[in-house]
Design goal:
alpha/beta; about 25% strand; 4-stranded antiparallel β-sheet; Arc Repressor Mutant, subunit A; Rossmann fold
Length: about 240
């Protein structure tokens, strides 16, 4: 039985081949594309489980691929960026990438990142974090916000809110302990996991997305200056 299908989009053949070799050894099924247009075609025709995406590509660049994929799918995307390209990494995270690796990278680290992202993305995997108190194990209600942990759905009143995997996990973490203050480091550990190598700006980007998607709700994510964030009602 074939493992999860990974699409690697990179115009450097040595990187694609190395990624394919290491991922295949770990039981993944891997396909590759060496330019942006081919990558988009393969994404739409082959329906991969995860995309490893270089930002600097001939044809359609990586940021535009990320935008187009996000319009059609919530599948995980791991970006590959050149060393020091902080702006590209931040923009990539803002438009929907799940993680990033800086070139040159250790292929074992890529395998670890792929496994970690897929664990977080799997809707049937248990959530990390604190135990819920006073909540149904499969359902959280706070103000006009309803979170179904089993089905991974969110509603504000009667309105369904579409969230990406880590947006959902972040909101669920807040909602399990409403009014509690979470610092960014704790959120990274609980939502992204101890094997995540990114920085705390990832939290700020995802909080911004959640605030936009929860607009109109009585429930808000409130900034606690110098500390982090908390979920409150009527702020």
């Amino acid at each position: 039985m074939a493992g999860p299908l990974i699409l690697v989009i990179d115009d450097e053949t040595n990187i694609s081949d190395l990624a394919k070799m290491y991922l295949t050894k770990e039981g993944f099924d891997v396909i590759t594309a060496d330019d942006g247009n081919e990558g988009l075609r393969m994404f739409r025709s082959r329906k991969p489980t995860l995309i490893v995406l270089d930002l600097m590509l001939p044809g359609v660049d990586g940021l535009e691929i990320c935008r187009q994929v996000r319009r059609e799918s919530g599948i995980p995307i791991i970006m590959l960026t050149a060393r020091g390209d902080d702006i590209d990494r931040i923009v990539g995270l803002e438009i929907g990438a799940d993680d990033y690796l800086t070139k040159p990278f250790n292929p074992r680290e890529l395998v670890a990142r792929v496994k970690a992202v897929l664990r977080r993305y799997n809707p049937n995997s248990p959530m990390d974090g604190d135990k819920m108190s006073g909540q149904d194990k499969e359902r959280i209600v706070f103000g006009d916000l309803t979170i179904d942990l089993k089905q991974r759905t969110v509603q504000v009143g009667e309105r369904q809110v579409e969230l990406r995997a880590k947006e959902f996990d972040l909101l669920a973490t807040f909602a399990q302990s409403p009014n509690a203050v979470f610092d960014r480091e704790k959120l990274l550990n609980q939502v992204w996991g101890y094997d995540y190598y990114g920085d705390t700006r990832t939290i700020d980007v995802h909080v911004t997305h959640l605030r936009e998607k929860l607009e109109g709700s009585r429930v808000k994510i409130q900034t606690v200056w110098g500390v982090g964030y908390k979920l409150v009602e009527g702020a």
